[in-house]
């Protein structure tokens, strides 16, 4: 097996091992680490039939994390994908109305972020040991709702680490917020900012790019890293579940060997659908990648026009994890589509930071032809959740609703009958009020979200997840707030 090394999308760093890239999170020049080549699957999906999720995870991840020994990687996988998931399959497929919903929410925080953030702390601690890192690793993360809780749950009380999460104070669901504010762990901190997710994400990137602050922290015994999907250690584990889904479709006789599937992903920061693209580049038989946006349809506009323009109104929606105007992981697709031209990628990212927009060439757009954009308004999203429930009895959350609506519109417009996997990214229990309003067709007013639990349990037929059941009585442990301009100062204060 060939060793894989990692370089910054902006050219400033080259030749990092997987463990070094995981440990750093973000390159020093602000770029994202990418492998020097995308490895091909060395075992066919047909030969993976009968394998467990853990076994498939090893077959995929070993190709990227080449400086991890077999024992190290298998130990990380076994520690991550254990009894914290409430189904033996880890990521089961549910068939409803002709599509296959890949349920990625059976982990401890009932959202797809668990799939990668369950393993990242283990990859991080092995990486620290490999590189003889003697500083405390400070995980610094911005969240649009789900990453924060999943990261804190993963890193809580992990020796040699601290974790600080910034989230938009009024931009997440109440359940998402309470999941973060009640998180236990002496090494965990969460801060609400008076801004949106993009403000939080930009603030975190500025802190990573502040070399003087890095020196100051190093003198105090700290090293920054990230748990966002900008960290390659977050992205690689996400490839696994697309390979797993394909293998399960083969295993159940839903598709034939080599038959192509389409994949639809509700998308904000672009990491989840980028993982599906990497699976395709590795040889998984995938046709169209449907990039599903909500009213913040910056990605839809980009795939339609080749122009990425963040200069627009930021809309708070019922699918808050997608309320994003700067999709960080798109930089990796830009890099690949430019022929791994770091100078070109750096130029476009500078234009985005300075002018608020950039445009790509027709040649680059051609290399992105695997993707097709779609979007659903809030009203369309709610209608889709209700339509699917009324027709099949299957209940989905507000992010999966966006993806389901985009898939249905695409199928009707194109007549494409390719079997399609829809990434179902969160439990409907995580967005109680919005989902129950969609199903009933009426506003729930100022009702306490938790009062809707019995109604959701009745209509869904799914028992209340422990993550929700235990939340109502949990004590608030975090109450910090700050402005986006005070984020660095807040980090410094927390680490005192």
Distance between the termini: 45 Å
Q: Enumerate the strands of the largest sheet in spatial order, edge to edge or round the barrel.
A: 3-4-14-9-10-13
- The counted number of beta strands is 15
Which class of the domain at 93-110 and 233-461 in CATH terms? Answer: Alpha Beta
Tell me about the biggest sheet?
Answer: 6 strands, mixed
- The CATH architecture of the domain at 93-110 and 233-461 is 3-Layer(aba) Sandwich
Helicity level:
40-55%
User: What global shape is seen?
Assistant: globular
Instruction: Give the number of helices.
Output: 22
- Computed over alpha carbons, the radius of gyration is 21 Å
At the third CATH level, what is the topology name of the domain at 93-110 and 233-461? Rossmann fold
Strand content: 5-15%
Mean pLDDT score:
95
* Backbone structural class: alpha/beta
Outline the low-pLDDT stretches.
none
How would you characterize this protein structure?
The chain is of the alpha/beta class. It has a domain at 93-110 and 233-461: 3-Layer(aba) Sandwich (Rossmann fold), CATH 3.40.50.1100. The chain has helices at residues 18-24, 45-48, 53-61, 70-80, 113-117, 120-130, 147-155, 174-181, 197-208, 211-219, 232-251, 271-281, 298-305, 330-337, 342-354, 362-367, 378-392, 398-414, 432-440, 453-460, 466-469, 487-494, and strands spanning 6-8, 33-35, 93-96, 99-103, 136-142, 161-168, 188-193, 222-225, 261-266, 286-293, 307-309, 357-359, 371-375, 420-424, 480-482.
